[in-house]
Amino acid sequence: MAVFKEMLYGGDYNPEQWPKEIWLEDMQIFNDAKMNSATINVFAWALLQPDESTYDFTMLDDIVEMLVENNYQIVMGTSTAALPAWMSHRYPDVNRTDFYGIPHKFGHRHNACPNSPTFRKYSARLANKIAERYGHLENLVCWHISNEYSGECYCDNCAKAFRIWLKKKYDTIEAINQAWNTNFWSHTFYSLEEIVPPNYLGDGIPNGKASFAGLSLDYSRFNSQSIMQNFIDEREAIREFDPKTPVTANLMGAYKPLNYFEFAKEMDIVSWDAYPSFDTPFSYSSMMHDLMRGLKDGQSFMLMEQTPNQQNWQPFNSLKRPGQMRQMSYHAVAHGADTVQFFQLRQSVGAGEKFHSAVIGHVGNKETRVLREVTQLGNELQKLGGALLDARTPAKIGLIFDWDNYWALEYAIGPNVELKYVDQIHHYYKEIYKRNIPIDLIAIDSDFSQYDVILAPCLYLLNDKTAQKIENYTKDGGIFVTSTMSGLVDENDNIHLGGYPGPLKEVAGIWVEEFDAMPMSKKIPVHFTDTMGHGTLLCDIIHLEGAQAIATYGEGEFYQGMPVITSHSYGKGQAYYVGTMLDDQGMETLFNQILEATTLTSLYLPEGIEVTERCNDNGRFKFILNHLGKEQQLSIDIVGQDLLTDENVSNDLTVAPYGVKIIKLA
Amino acid sequence: MAVFKEMLYGGDYNPEQWPKEIWLEDMQIFNDAKMNSATINVFAWALLQPDESTYDFTMLDDIVEMLVENNYQIVMGTSTAALPAWMSHRYPDVNRTDFYGIPHKFGHRHNACPNSPTFRKYSARLANKIAERYGHLENLVCWHISNEYSGECYCDNCAKAFRIWLKKKYDTIEAINQAWNTNFWSHTFYSLEEIVPPNYLGDGIPNGKASFAGLSLDYSRFNSQSIMQNFIDEREAIREFDPKTPVTANLMGAYKPLNYFEFAKEMDIVSWDAYPSFDTPFSYSSMMHDLMRGLKDGQSFMLMEQTPNQQNWQPFNSLKRPGQMRQMSYHAVAHGADTVQFFQLRQSVGAGEKFHSAVIGHVGNKETRVLREVTQLGNELQKLGGALLDARTPAKIGLIFDWDNYWALEYAIGPNVELKYVDQIHHYYKEIYKRNIPIDLIAIDSDFSQYDVILAPCLYLLNDKTAQKIENYTKDGGIFVTSTMSGLVDENDNIHLGGYPGPLKEVAGIWVEEFDAMPMSKKIPVHFTDTMGHGTLLCDIIHLEGAQAIATYGEGEFYQGMPVITSHSYGKGQAYYVGTMLDDQGMETLFNQILEATTLTSLYLPEGIEVTERCNDNGRFKFILNHLGKEQQLSIDIVGQDLLTDENVSNDLTVAPYGVKIIKLA
Amino acid sequence: MAVFKEMLYGGDYNPEQWPKEIWLEDMQIFNDAKMNSATINVFAWALLQPDESTYDFTMLDDIVEMLVENNYQIVMGTSTAALPAWMSHRYPDVNRTDFYGIPHKFGHRHNACPNSPTFRKYSARLANKIAERYGHLENLVCWHISNEYSGECYCDNCAKAFRIWLKKKYDTIEAINQAWNTNFWSHTFYSLEEIVPPNYLGDGIPNGKASFAGLSLDYSRFNSQSIMQNFIDEREAIREFDPKTPVTANLMGAYKPLNYFEFAKEMDIVSWDAYPSFDTPFSYSSMMHDLMRGLKDGQSFMLMEQTPNQQNWQPFNSLKRPGQMRQMSYHAVAHGADTVQFFQLRQSVGAGEKFHSAVIGHVGNKETRVLREVTQLGNELQKLGGALLDARTPAKIGLIFDWDNYWALEYAIGPNVELKYVDQIHHYYKEIYKRNIPIDLIAIDSDFSQYDVILAPCLYLLNDKTAQKIENYTKDGGIFVTSTMSGLVDENDNIHLGGYPGPLKEVAGIWVEEFDAMPMSKKIPVHFTDTMGHGTLLCDIIHLEGAQAIATYGEGEFYQGMPVITSHSYGKGQAYYVGTMLDDQGMETLFNQILEATTLTSLYLPEGIEVTERCNDNGRFKFILNHLGKEQQLSIDIVGQDLLTDENVSNDLTVAPYGVKIIKLA
Fold first, then answer.
1. Which of A39, A539, C600, C652 is a Cys-bridge partner for A516, taking CB atoms 3.0 to 4.6 Å apart?
2. CA gap B411, B420 in Å, rounded
């Protein structure tokens, strides 16, 4: 399913902040830059609805009319990500209560309590009104509901809704007590009314830990689903008048509070906002794109927001270097984006984001570096047309990313404060990244059978069904790789008794008796057959129960000589267990061995060069990306034509600073 | 106008904390130390007024009587800086609500809500009663209202008062919406009632930033003026009985929440409390004195508080070294003080400041180093008599310090968290300081015409009127120096559209297209014609539009070779723009060039030696100050007589450790 | 008085978290490990009492029955350390209000307001019911009331109770005003109702300081006594049915909020929970054991909790190395423990401590390292039998540890933020520790006469009675050692006027005029007759008034050449004053000199080796402890028999890694 007919190129446009005479100037600039789309109406609720019963679409009509006249594809926002002040004032239930139990009054955005009856009524009604008015438009290509859904609420309405959620999930109070192991610290509940949200006034802890992880985990699920319900409310209200146009909400990478795999099921297409910092590793940016692509099983996504130049909310908002914005745009495309959009098209004159860059800066209609680069990109994208649309990434390695694990691992008190979920996932990702092998970030409930290798580091929380799936996958010939802190708890955060790694013991062929914890600054030698690396953070003490040790601890601790990495032949497959956090050398040795059994080939390229692949009915495309501001030479086995330059390419390449090649393979 | 007849020498005296028999002992010590003044009644509200209707001046009468008998000049406090407990208890509206929305109960000091009707009533009434009783006294030389006004309140009374303030300032809600650009994030207000104070429950951010800087800026102005109104309330209550005695409130240097330039207009004389830490740069202390002198356009100020020896509330409260207290006292005089006063004359026996040193320490009437040094200083000051009173500093360089800019620059989200207003001002100050050239800290609405050079670094917020004044000043032959982050926003914190630096573009003859941001730890080479320095923090990308580049970026970034410092001949004057934060070498090169066109001469002296000048009808006085605890030699072009030793001085000087010379020029 | 007949070996057992079929498996494991005791019913309130009027002991009956059948000694908890949810829900007065004035809802443990009438009623009633049911049991050896009493509450009930407490202590409001020096900052109170708890809404400061230390100090006393009253409530309720069985509450070393010396007077035996971190100095662990022994004047204590292996709530929860748990157990015994108990016997399946290790881990009934080590220890303890019970430590050095000083010193604002009470006590402790000389941690109201040397560093708060006792002690031949920051304030935190160190001036024979403060990173040379060391943190400027200087300041500051350490012959004794924080070299020189006059002999042993002594009617026992994981040789003057191996020992010893010898002297 190709969602769009051509690649969307444009971005957030907020003409309601400007006098109307400016609009025409803007359109001229966008047209010159070969833009073909605009996202509008993202933050305009207070303008559209000045009170409970009045709706005023005059200005939005004008904006739409102008865009239609200019043949723009429209991504239509619903404007519900920031409450109108009158609503906060008259209906305080719409305001959030924070982790410290403090009810807020009116400020910022993403400020609505997801379980506020008032908010749910008026947000859905607004979406409905907008759909009624604009849903029929031919230019409408996508609905953009709310904006960057985020945050938590702990108000009394949420508490009530949480109790209803619990009743539905567990039916009895006894089941809740068992799920949360409330006999610990005598927390036994006799009635739902006794249960309070796990914030600072309850069982939450300001550092992100939880006294009752089962409770906090359920609240995280509840909060994520509450916010997702806000999305569904609006989507359904839209569907009353527009049954077909794709619906999205713009996501934020590895944003913790929202289970995006669950959320993405409710969307037609995933979109996201890519805001790397000046020191974000390239591999991390790639991983985020891959995660977004993974949310809907490899379907193309929208790069809904990126900044044309510097951001404003980082500690140090460096400029994007000449060519870097273009390169980062293609970086997204290389990982699955079918759109290249900016936040924002025109820079705001005042308030919190006035130093966030835009296609049209504060200088207005004047020749700028940003405009030149945007225009170059626009011309290129126009040339590319729909060639790359809906292309897929042919990955044979799947890396599990799971929000339940994200939450549960980080709620756990112990064993090591430096253990962070996304860091651990990225640690494995970057080992594959540096080999330039395609990789998918996948949900825990994905179909594993399409992958040669499944990576599941820190698979801390694991239910029996998934454990069974892993066993079957491995038995059937899959390569399964897991690590320390895996198989520890069930879906309620209760330990799988009988020895670690719980339901993975059999497939891994080991028993982990203990795990030592240490600061990252401390390293333990890890000996492979011929080489060595180091481990840190955690050191599992492993007993072989069928597996073989492929590396053992070196000197320094009492577990010297004991297995640290194991390999187990299981059915037709192989299961690896990595009992520590390996350094780069160790990871390289390990994955050389793991990948040996596959047909996957590592491609080592100069630092800063990345190669990806996408395929569709038009052919196979290789993306060569230079993340660095210096020209690089590479010798690589590729023959084809560069879509950007029409040059034929074969093997020896020179890649310009921040250069990009999109080679259609011959 | 000479406010005092002789230099005040004394300090805060709190005999109400002591049994009366101690008082005579105290007086004897003060007399021996040649003190001639005492500040009394600073914290005694609860003693003076035990309930709503009772006032009891018995003890204050006794204290005043004793001071009069001993011919002391009296600085009379009004005692309103700390609420009586009974008032906090019976009238909770007097208590403040903090940034987090938490209403306080009773504690500390500076604890009154400035908009509390109860507080306003009783504070003015108390001042009135005290004026009625003591306003006629001949010994009374100054009113000292409240103490170290400070803090903010966010209670409902303040919210109401803020809405009235807004109504008065803007008249219509539409004007407010425009001023704050509320179309951003759909913050449009339809009624004043919807506006809430910008604290944590609203649009404030705990790190000091603001989602709506226009709103937060207005609240800062409102809060500052609310507290200033408390001062005016009391001043007016005093004036009913005492129309003439000068009125002051003791200030605190670059204290952020109060706009001291505005505040000083309401005072007859500025006074301040100088509490440098053991590692405060000498240039910073000098700058604070100069700022205090600048508050009333160069008029002498009072050094209301300094500590005779160690402080107590710093992390490390080092002793003042032998001679250092004396040297610091003269340091204040050298920069414009007409009084030398201490906090405190007798050290308290208990509570939060019991380890803050005093003229009479816990040991009581015993020979101590502090007493010896105080006595030496007292004798010297007696000898000096009124010679230095009301002397002015003959500065030809003005450095703009502006609270609107202080607030607005630091509310801004982006571009660089390490950008701090006072640091930037001090960065320019110290370049002049090390040349021993007199400099004034001036208000943005000052008369620029008296200065050869106006320095305006980080003149972020700039209204059209000031911009016009700058143009005129430069056109008429002035030298105007500004920097990156200047001319960006108007008085509402909305961007001056059309290119940076907004209304300074023409006078500076440049257009700034972009500014790169980086941590302080990163340096970019800056090439002048013959020398080089480095820049950091921000790097402006500058296009010349009439100006000349006097320095360009060195290698490392894509803006290599582009202008970083520019000079523009404008009318008869010259405008400089400094597009980065220069290191010391760069500053030296730059200012060598800037000052070349003036008659100002740099005087480089050994590290720790400072020279200042003051002039009055008695003559011209040069102060030679040694900030270090070692003897120093200097060769300097001065001929005259040292007022402290009566020695004739000519050119070659030996300055003792922490030594001071006050040379009346021949 | 020997409290137990044999050493208790066992720990916290929470079978209520497990299905009953597990219990028999557990008992088998405990029996195999030679355990003889179990602590039960520590967190079961919600199970025991499902509502106001129902009590259900069915499960506890079963647990007790099983333990009795297996001849276990029972330590019976009262289960009141965690509120039942129904009580928090129905009676919100049971919940605490925190330092920020935030009332909590339901969560964690140690969550009851100590002054809640509801909590006091139901906690005592529960203890009473349990005593009624189990108080007669022969197997019952100890009552374990609540658990790890801790925290503070600032609710309105506490405010009211505080006012009653104040009325009882001071009688008049005038006395309160005087005690707290409320004339400072005009805090004068006219009625008790005006006094509010000194939290963030009052005179408290988030960094732990206080504007009115007298008030905060009284609140600390009040809070400590309120919690102690909860203990007394339950103890008295127990005594109704069980007049004899010893009663304890498990303490936590140098836990700041509770005055353990006061608390211990209400207990029959002290017990505590030892949880060193991986980098806790050995000397610090020793000091904590000695403090616990000191709480009841040298009486043996219970090691109520230690972890069999890793903890979970440290940042890095390292494993205990093989042999280390055993060594740490004996370390406690070596310092006075008569029991070796674990938290916990079975690891919980879920919630906040699921990664805290246990005798029976998540793996269940399987051979583990922990079980092997526990079993070895069990066999050894069985062999030791009652040989060591009730042995005393023959210390002739007493080191004062005083909670009033702990609180008051740290409430003080100034002179140095790096000054921490426990650090300073430990600084002196470790100098004695490294000499392997027995030392007692003693209360300020102890009988000093049994000691040759009394160490009293930072004896900041000192009433006249104690000062008199110190004078008498010294006069009668004692050696008294005190330091900077001593003798400064009275019991109300008001300064002893007339010169520092207040009432210690005479015995010390000095007057301290001033004290300089500096960061730890700055060092000042200290010259003894032949050697030198360095001082830091504070440097007192001392005038000799009868004392002799035994060390003077070296160069660098103006007090160079002045005395820094003094010695004063006073009566038959000697008083030392140490005017700075000495480094290790300085401490060694100083204590060589101090101890010269005693019969105490320093025994320097290799790093990580510690020797202690205990004596009872069975003989004298020397403990040789190796804190390191490497074998060590030592030559030492000991002849006797190792109780653990029955080997005869004379002088030359090899101590295994983490090895222990308990030598009964011949």
1. A539
2. 10
Q: Quickly tell me which residue has 């938590």 as its tokens.
A: A152
Q: Are residues B430 and B569 in the same domain?
A: yes
Give me the residues of chain A with pLDDT under 50, please. none
Under an 8 A CB cutoff, do B200 and A102 touch?
A: yes
C109 is in an annotated binding site: yes
pLDDT at C81: 98
pLDDT at C1: 57
Catalytic residue among B305, B373, B410, B613: B305
**CB-based contact, B174 to chain A, within 8 Å:** no
CA atoms B273, B278, B279, B283: torsion sign:
positive
B1 pLDDT more than 80: no
> Is A153 annotated as a binding-site member?
yes
pLDDT digits (tens, 9 = 90+) for B55-65: 999 999 999 99
Q: Rounded to whole angstroms, how far apart are CA atoms C584 and C533?
A: 8
- The answer to whether residue B405 is domain-embedded is yes
Contact B663, B644 (CB under 8 A): no
Residue C3 pLDDT? 86
Whether residue B623 is contained in a domain is answered as yes
Q: Residue B469's Cα: distance from chain center in Å? A: 24
CB pair distance less than 8 Å for B350 and C499: no
Q: Are residues B572 and B616 in the same domain?
A: no
Residues C96 and C225 in one domain: yes
Structure tokens at A207: 């550092």
Min distance C424 CA to chain B CA atoms (Å): 17
C557 within a domain of the structure (yes/no) = yes
Q: Which of residues 57-96 of A touch B (CB under 8 A)?
A: 79, 82-86, 88-89
CA-CA distances (angstroms) from residue C524 to B277, C415, C582? 20, 17, 9
* B564 and B639 fall within a common domain: no
Cβ-contact A350, B214 below 8 angstroms: yes
pLDDT confidence of residue A1: 57
Q: Compute the count of residue pairs across chains B and C with CB atoms less than 8 Å apart.
A: 179
Rg (CA), chain A: 26
Are A654 and A578 in a shared domain? no
> Domain residues for A209?
42-48+73-253
Picking from B30, B307, B360, the residue whose alpha carbon sits closest to that of residue C498 is B360
For chain A, which chains pass the contact test of at least 3 CB pairs under 8 Å?
B, C
Residues of chain A contacting residue B418, judged by C-beta atoms under 8 Å apart: 315-316
Question: Is pLDDT above 80 for B2?
Answer: no
Q: pLDDT tens, B116-148?
A: 999 999 999 999 999 999 999 999 999 999 999
**Chain A contact for C43, CB < 8 A?**
yes
Q: Are residues B582 and B649 in the same domain?
A: no
Tell me, what CATH number does C619's domain have? 2.60.40.1180
Looking at the fold, whether A508 and A413 belong to one and the same domain comes out as yes
Secondary structure letter of residue A104 according to DSSP: P
**Residue C208: CATH number of its domain:** 3.20.20.80
Q: B651 pLDDT exceeds 90?
A: no
Structure tokens at C124: 């005592």
**CATH number reported for the structural domain that contains residue A446 in this entry:** 3.40.50.880
Mean pLDDT calculated for residue range B198-206? 97
Q: In chain B, what residues touch A350 (CB-CB under 8 Å)?
A: 180-181, 184, 212-214, 489, 492-495
Q: How do residues C16-63 score in pLDDT, each as one tens digit?
A: 999 999 999 999 999 999 999 999 999 999 999 999 999 999 999 999
Query: How many domains is chain C partitioned into structurally?
Result: 3
Task: Please indicate, yes or no, whether residues C650 and C617 belong to a single structural domain of this protein.
Answer: yes
Note if C506 is an active site residue. Answer: no
Q: Strands B479-483 and B453-456: what pairing?
A: parallel
Site from C184, C420, C484 to mutate, B interface, most B CB atoms within 10 angstroms: C184
Residues of chain C with pLDDT under 50: none
- CA-based torsion, B156, B157, B158, B161: positive or negative: positive
Please indicate, yes or no, if residue A504 is contained in any of the structural domains. Answer: yes
